[in-house]
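Long-time lurker. I teach an intro course on protein structure, and each term I like to show students one example going from raw sequence to a predicted 3D structure in token notation. This year I'd like something fresh instead of my usual example. Would anyone be willing to generate the tokens for the chain below so I can use it in lecture? Attribution to the forum is fine with me.
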Amino acid sequence: MKKITIIIPCYNEKNTIAEIIEQILQLNNIKKQIIVVDDKSNDGSEQIIKKYESKKKIQAIYHDSNQGKGASIISAKRLIDGDIVLIQDADLEYDPEDIPKLIEPI
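-- Reply from a regular --
Happy to contribute to a lecture. Here you go:
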């Protein structure tokens, strides 16, 4: 089974970041690595991310300044150890339950 690295760029998503992480953690039928990149949020997102990081459920990167989604993805590059890399926005625009369908053909 291939390992999936899921990168979650996050900027001021305190209302959705815990839910998106939980939904991804509940995907039991895939081997995964979760990397959350906090792009200098100022709404409390960082504290939520740190709770998951302290429980060893995710890996996290914290930017010193807001740099944008692209920079968040580039920052995560050094931690990637999966065979497939997916970007999952923290705002719940995309449903994490679609991930198994996305990787099925691979």
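Some talking points for your students: The chain has a mean pLDDT of 96. The two ends are 10 Å apart (CA to CA).
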